[in-house]
Design goal:
Largest sheet: 2 strands, antiparallel
Number of helices: 3
Radius of gyration: 16 Å
Strand order of the largest sheet: 1-2
């Protein structure tokens, strides 16, 4: 997923597309609203079809987190986290 970039000085460090100031979330919101790939590419000519696929792949990977159960050795009660647990869990 080299098309998805992170820069703490750009868009608040949120995932963007190829260093541009368009966030992955922006593309996902358009797709969720029913805007098709052809229309997105027409409205954002600097995007490529591969960028849209990379956004979907990124979202799918981010959604594939293990569920932590309260009281399990890997669950932290002090700080909620939406990132996968460490490999030791």
């Amino acid at each position: 997923m080299d098309r998805i970039t992170f820069n703490p000085n750009q868009c608040g460090g949120r995932p963007c597309i190829r260093g541009m100031r368009i966030r992955v979330k922006d593309v996902l919101d358009l797709l969720a609203a029913g805007v098709g790939e052809v229309e997105i590419l027409a409205d954002y000519p600097y995007l490529e079809a591969e960028d849209i696929r990379a956004c979907l792949e990124y979202a799918a990977a981010e959604a594939d987190h293990p569920v932590l159960v309260a009281g399990s050795p890997c669950a932290s009660s002090s700080t909620p986290s939406f990132r996968p647990p460490s490999p030791s869990c």
